[in-house]
Amino acid sequence: MAYLFRSEDMQYVRITMSRDKAEYFTKRIGSLNEGKGLIHVVDLADEATLKSETMKEYKKRIVASTQNEKRLDEIEKLMVDYNITIPDVEINDVKIARGCNAEFESKWADVERDLKINSGAVKTLQKAICRLEEERYVLQECRDNINLDALDAEVKEMKRNTGRNTDIKSPLLDADIELQGMQSDDQKFYTYICGVIPVAQQIFFTRMLYRLSRGNAFVRYLNIEDELLDPESGEYVDKSVFYIVSIGRGLSSKLAKLCDFFQAAIYTVPNRADEYDNRIREIESGVRERKTVMESSRVSVRKILRSVADDGRGSSPMANWRKTLSKEKILCETLMKTRRYLTMIRMDGWVPATDVKQIKTCVQDFDSEQPGSIAIDDIFDIESAEFKKNHGEPPTYFKTNEFTGIYQGIVNTYGVPKYKEVNPGLFTCVTFPFIFGVMYGDIGHGGALFLAALYFLYYENHFLEQQRRGEMGELMKYAFGARYALILMGFFGFYCGTIYNDFISVPLQVFDSMWVMPGNLTQTNNELLLRDDSAHYPYGIDWNWYHRKNELTFFNSLKMKMSVILGVTQMMFGISLGAFNYVHFGDYLSLYYVWIPQMLFMMCTFGYMCFMIIYKWTIDYSGEGADEPPALIQTMIKMFLSPGKIETPLYDGQGAVQVVLLLIAVATVPVMLLVKPILQNKQHEVID
User: Fold this and answer.
1) Is-contact 297 118, C-beta < 8 A?
2) Which of 13, 399, 401, 426 fits 4 for a cystine, CB–CB 3.0-4.6 Å?
3) Coil, strand, or helix at residue 505?
4) pLDDT, tens digit, for every residue of 646-679?
């Protein structure tokens, strides 16, 4: 991983090629480095070039390729629905005799049309079958469970009971209130509606029905044992048959709208009992016929999808065309950055110095095939002031892999290192998960995180395929993408959990405690005692510290001081990396008058605080006649407010040492702020 310490050496190259061969050669360059390319192309296009007809054509090709990718996405969604996967085969470029998008149209238009016809037929037939199945359940339940004569008698009996409260503010779901508010005795008709409704909507449907009808309608439900396929969503849902009885004709249209709002399907029920069996037989016959036709359409869809997933010759047309369309967009975007002349095109870019030879070889091979059509120039002094004025600084490029890429991404979030600066990403591979473990430290949670990341890595190919097909949720994408960080975060969380002796907030009694109860335990004499003066817990924190009166005080002190030491150490390490940059760039002015004062200031203030924390840990203040331990926070405050005055000394001569450290820290501030600007100003005056 030494290559991550500094960015790669970059070289500026200029390729001049004939306009008629530009696309072909650009494709050849893009195929280098396993198709990842080797050139960071510099945008040379001016405003006039971008308005040219050629550039407009490139934009049209990019838009067309994007639309064709969306068409492939729709086909791939069908492949997911029909459980057809793309085999793990080598992905090749499609041989194109004419334009990429024109070739795509000729190859996929018929496939897309056939899929649209057959898959549309399947969906239409599936919806029709679902509707017929629902109607069959309605007819069966109505035939077997609804007695129309008894229903008519019930309505007439309840219609006579008109003395109940009809206030709209009365309880809506009272079991005894269903037909209140009936009209006068001269109203002698009622209607009923039958259909199917999701079980989850029953409570809300009943409430809204009562409010809408003012008590002039009631509903009954008959649950269906089997789950039904919903015609709209295509998912299996628990549904029930319902029938609504309402007084008067005016409510029918309102009830139909209410049913539609609650996704309740209404079906017509025969008026005579002998018509039920005939209609059920018709439905069953219609379902059989539609299933036969639908299965035939399904077979046609599967056959087409299998042909685009695998052509039987070890290749996948779907994967090949995805790669080809992606390359087409990159090709057009690259050519839009070139400088165009009458017969030639100029492409400038940055290439890793180690790969310049590979680019030259590619150019020479092409020139041998097409003499005089291409030339390359890499003789540029990228360190000269004139070059930097015209072309700027070289880009920062780090060669990363799946493991280091995630940590480099974290560093780049805060800022990309300048060209040839020391890369913090190398050290972040360890410091980031370790500091997370210090914060997260728990055996249970850390172990669970480690096992989850291990699961991601073990089934990595499966999840990569799931991600490629767009089946992975957004949250899952983030978790899987961070798998190489999560495994170390879980490991260090587990490790620090063993130090803290914490398993999901429960201490583990792995070793015998070094603290014992006193023999003469009383209400006042209740402090634990050490087994002996030299007793120490073998590993981590003694479990007897947990669930004690002073637990919070002990752990807050320990973890706060440990966090301070780790934080200051990381800060000083980061400052130390600056010295490597100053030496590498020959900036000794910053080394002497910025870096050294910074280090002195940190060491005399925060570094001294860490020293006192560690030194205090080495002193036993529990023995008889021992001195009172000093408060380090108060000591640091008084170091600045009352220099030289020490109430509770930590060591001999502490006052004089702190005065010297304070003077050094104060003296470094003007050096950091003033010396470098003054010297640079004098240098500029001499140059002028």
Assistant:
1) yes
2) 426
3) coil
4) 888 888 999 999 999 999 999 999 999 999 999 9
Can you give the pLDDT at residue 526? 63
Residue with tokens 């992606």, as numbered in its chain: 326
Q: Which region holds residue 398: left if phi is over 0, alpha if psi is between -120 and 50, else beta? A: beta
pLDDT of residue 620: 79
Strands (E), 435-540: 515-516, 529-530
Please state, in angstroms and rounded to a whole number, the distance separating the CA atoms of residues 327 and 332: 9
What's residue 427's pLDDT?
92
pLDDT at 181 over 50: no
CA distance 542 to 531: 13
Q: How would you class 479 by CB atoms within 10 Å of its CB: exposed for 0-12, middle for 13-18, buried for 19 or more?
A: middle
CA pair distance 171, 182, nearest whole angstrom: 17
Instruction: Provide the CB-side half-sphere exposure for 567 (13 A, CA).
Output: 9
Helix (H) or strand (E) holding 193: strand 190-198
pLDDT value of position 170 = 42
How far is the CA of 287 from the CAs of 240, 283, 297, in angstroms?
Answer: 20, 6, 15
- Is the confidence at residue 536, as pLDDT, over 70? yes
Q: Which amino acid, residue 305?
A: L
| Residues in the chain, total | 688
Radius of gyration of the chain (CA): 40
**What pLDDT score does 177 carry?**
35
**Single-letter amino acid, residue 638:** K
Query: Per residue in 493-519, pLDDT tens?
Result: 999 999 999 998 899 988 888 887 776
Three-state DSSP at 9 gives coil
